[in-house]
């Protein structure tokens, strides 16, 4: 009875670990993953100013 219970419990726990596997192979100086949408947003002057203000607020309290 106990062996059956623990066997079923182990199978249930192992089934929770299963998921899609996405492997990204990397070469030096070449990123082969998906593109980051925040990169384009981060290049705008408005976003740069906002990030600079946030940085200053975090650094001036020290």
Commentary on this structure:
By secondary structure, the chain is an all-alpha fold. It has helices at 2-16, 37-42, 45-60. The mean pLDDT is 81. It starts with a helix and ends with a helix. It has three helices and no strands.
Topology overview:
Blueprint (H helix, E strand, L loop, with lengths): L1 H15 L20 H6 L2 H16 L2
Amount of helix: 55-70%
Order of helices and strands: HHH
Shape: elongated
Report the radius of gyration as a whole number of Å. 24 Å
* DSSP summary: helix tally: 3
Strand content: under 5%
Low-confidence stretches: none
Query: Could you tell me the number of beta strands?
Result: 0
Distance linking N and C termini: 62 Å
User: Structural class, from helix and strand content?
Assistant: mainly alpha
The average pLDDT value, as a whole number, equals: 81
Brief digest:
The protein has helices spanning 2-16, 37-42, 45-60. With 62 residues, the protein is mostly helical.
List the main descriptive attributes of the protein structure presented here:
single chain, 62 residues, mainly alpha, 0% strand, elongated
């Amino acid at each position: 009875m106990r062996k059956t219970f623990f066997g079923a419990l182990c199978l249930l726990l192992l089934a929770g670990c299963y998921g899609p596997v996405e492997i990204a192979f990397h070469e030096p100086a070449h990123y082969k993953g998906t593109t980051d949408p925040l990169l384009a947003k981060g290049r705008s002057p408005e976003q740069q100013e906002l990030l600079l203000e946030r940085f200053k607020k975090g650094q001036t309290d020290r």
